[in-house]
Structure formats: C-alpha cells, structure tokens
C-alpha cells in the first residue's frame, strides 16, 4: 500500500493482503505481486488520458505488468477522491466503498472487464460476494 499525495485510508493492511490472497487463490493464482497506490483524481485522470486516451475521472486503474503465462504482477491506482464521492452517491460507508474498489481492481488484474452490462453485473456479483465474505478472510 502506497500513497501518492494523499493520506492512506484507514483500512487494515492485513485485510487487503487477505482479500487479495483469497481472490487470487479462488482463481487459481498462487503467486502475485500487487502494489496498491492511493492517489488523487488529477493523477488518475492523467493516467486514463495517457494510457487509455480518455479524458475522464475514474475511481481505479489496474495495470497488468506481467508477461503472458507468468505470475500476476500489477499496479492498482485508486483515487480516494472518487471513492469518497462514490460512497456518497451510493450511500455506502467510505471504508466499504474503498474495499469494493480494491476488490474490483484485483478482478481487473485477473482479466475481468466491465465494458458491457453483462460484464458489470458479473463483476458486481463478485464484489458483493467478497465483501460479504470478508469475516473469514484468510490473512496468511
């Protein structure tokens, strides 16, 4: 977990490691290197424009850095400003919304997409599943 000009959210690092490990195990990935960088709207907008040719705000961007067939190696950028705004829009606690975005981002690293309504539904179902099962998050 890293900060790029923002205060880190009050989310337990063990929870983040545990949920990442659980998702990766569920999709049969035994090894992974994932860096989560919490940042600003400005930074993510710049990344979105530079790498996706889209000038827009977004809550997260996930970059796969690994070669095909290798262990997951990725960077996740999360705009805490977008998370805060979305938590208000969706009437969710900030921490819960931040956890949802972390889960969403990990799913992107695994190849899930949200470009179609069907894909969005599938990702939301997975996010809900992992959010509702965090009591038993394996933190090893």
From TrEMBL:
Keyword set, alphabetical order: Endonuclease, Hydrolase, Metal-binding, Nuclease, Zinc
Ranges in coiled-coil conformation: none
Annotated InterPro entries: MetalPrtase_cat_dom_sf_prd, YbeY, YbeY_CS
Cofactors named for this entry: Zn(2+)
Statement: the UniProt record of this protein carries the keyword Cell wall biogenesis/degradation: no
GO molecular function, one term: metalloendopeptidase activity
Classification via Gene3D superfamilies: Metalloproteases ('zincins'), catalytic domain
One GO biological process term: rRNA processing
NCBIfam families for this protein: rRNA maturation RNase YbeY
PANTHER family: ENDORIBONUCLEASE YBEY, CHLOROPLASTIC (PTHR46986:SF1)
Family under the similarity heading: Belongs to the endoribonuclease YbeY family.
Protein name in UniProt: Uncharacterized protein
Higher taxonomy: unclassified sequences, metagenomes, ecological metagenomes
